[in-house]
Amino acid sequence: MFIPWQRYADDHSRTVDTMTAALLFAAFLFGSEITMPRADQPDATVPTIVLAAVSCGTLLLWQRTRPRTSVVVTACCVAGAGALGHLITPLLLSPTMLALYRVAATTRRRTTRRCYLAAVAVIVPGALVLDPVDHPWVMKTISPVIWLLFPVVTGSLVRLQRRYVEAVQARAEYAERGREEEARHRVVEERVRIARELHDVVAHHLALANAQAGTAAHLARTHPDQVQRILDDLAGTTSSALRELKATVGLLRQADEGDAPLAPSPGLGQLAELTQTCASAGLDVRIDLEGTARPLTPGVDLTAYRIVQEALTNVTKHAAARTAQVRLRFGRDRLTITVTDDGTAVPSGATEGRGFGLIGMRERAHSVGGALQAGHRPGGGFQVTTRLPLYPDTPAPRERTP
User: Fold this and answer.
1) What is the dihedral of CA 244, 214, 306, 197, to 10 degrees?
2) Which of 49, 188, 204, 338 gives 327 a disulfide partner, CB atoms 3.0 to 4.6 angstroms apart?
3) What local confidence, expressed as pLDDT, does residue 337 receive?
4) CA dist 381 to 272, 317, 321, 337, 341, Å?
């Protein structure tokens, strides 16, 4: 946080330095006139003006670019003034104090300490040895040591404050980058979720449409009177596929999901509609319920529905099966779903648990803390078993279809 005069000093540094040098020049000359009571005033006006000009000119030229050199030159000028017989007062030390402040505010602590000791080593011994007036030793030793310590402490505090502000700004920038990374990560997760939905919708409806079309082609040769019913079911399947695809892809076009009207996601309540579409494709699906049905969280409900949908889709596409069974068993804290069929063929991609369909089902089960197993039954057919928690520890991502 900057106050107005600090902002002005940063924007007009050359003007500020010139004014400061002029003030310090006047202070140096005024300080040279101060003497102890009953002490003789040294007659050295011209050398004093020269020392003041050299000291303040050095500050004007080098205080920002070469602060250490400024400390040495100004300290030598103070020692020269002491050798002329002037009392070493804070006014004489003011150019050296400013140079030390610049060093403390812009360099490391070790450099500041060395410059301070160098200034003291130049001024104090010179005042003790070369003073022709024999001023009190306290004014020649303790006084310069204390007065030169003030700018060192002040400059060090300013340097620490600047570092603290820089650290705060760095943490703020890091936090901002972290939020941006988190936002990008959420976008990627949302795209993966939509891709999974597209896979389930396309695979299910295209598999049913293919089976219905094959059935219609077969019945056209043997039972032409039944073809119209199959074609009506095929039209319904394709219409449903288009609606779900439009709804899912629509998620990608929404600029603000919160303002768009959304409908509930599919769940186990839509299993009856799912079995009807499978029946039109020649697969008779039976649903058995064990235990007392309980309401599911939206994430678990959607996961259960999609797993049943994908399992029946695999049966329709890959297994030579006429019947399938979906068994829902509600336990105390877990829902077990078992999908079996009476087919004899090996489902494509199902061997040893491979295939995108099985991978997608496993990912869905794991996303809500469940598990899935799939494999061939000893008596023939295929079985998919998944166990889902009724109350997952971590809420699943919200999945809704507009």
Assistant:
1) -40
2) 338
3) 94
4) 23, 14, 8, 17, 5
Residue 13 to residue 200: CA distance in whole angstroms: 68
Q: Can you tell me the distance from the alpha carbon of 197 to that of 194, in angstroms, rounded to the nearest whole number? A: 5
Using CA atoms, how far residue 104 sits from 90, 241, 315, 337, 385, in Å, is: 18, 74, 79, 73, 73
Look at residue 354 and give its three-state secondary structure.
coil
**Residue with token string 């803390």:** 369
Strands lying side by side in the sheet with 323-330: 284-290, 323-330, 334-341, 382-389, 371-376
Query: In the prediction, which pLDDT does 399 show?
Result: 46
Cα 393 from chain centre? 25
Residue type, 212: Q
Do 131 and 82 meet the contact criterion of CB atoms below 8 Å apart? Answer: yes
- SS3 percent helix, strand, coil of the chain, rounded to 5, is 65, 10, 25
CA distance 252 to 318: 31
Region for residue 291 given its phi and psi (left: phi exceeds 0; alpha: psi -120 to 50; beta: otherwise): left
pLDDT for 286-341, tens place per residue? Answer: 999 998 888 888 778 888 888 898 888 888 776 667 888 999 999 888 999 999 98
- pTM exceeds 0.85 for this model: no
- Kindly list the structural domains of the chain, giving each domain's residue range(s) and its CATH number in brackets, ordered by start: 4-140 (no CATH), 180-389 (3.30.565.10)
CA distance 155 to 101: 5
Q: How many CB atoms lie within 10 A of CB 343?
A: 22
Distance between CA 350 and CA 377 in Å, rounded? 13
Return the closest-CA partner of residue 244 out of 289, 283, 209: 209
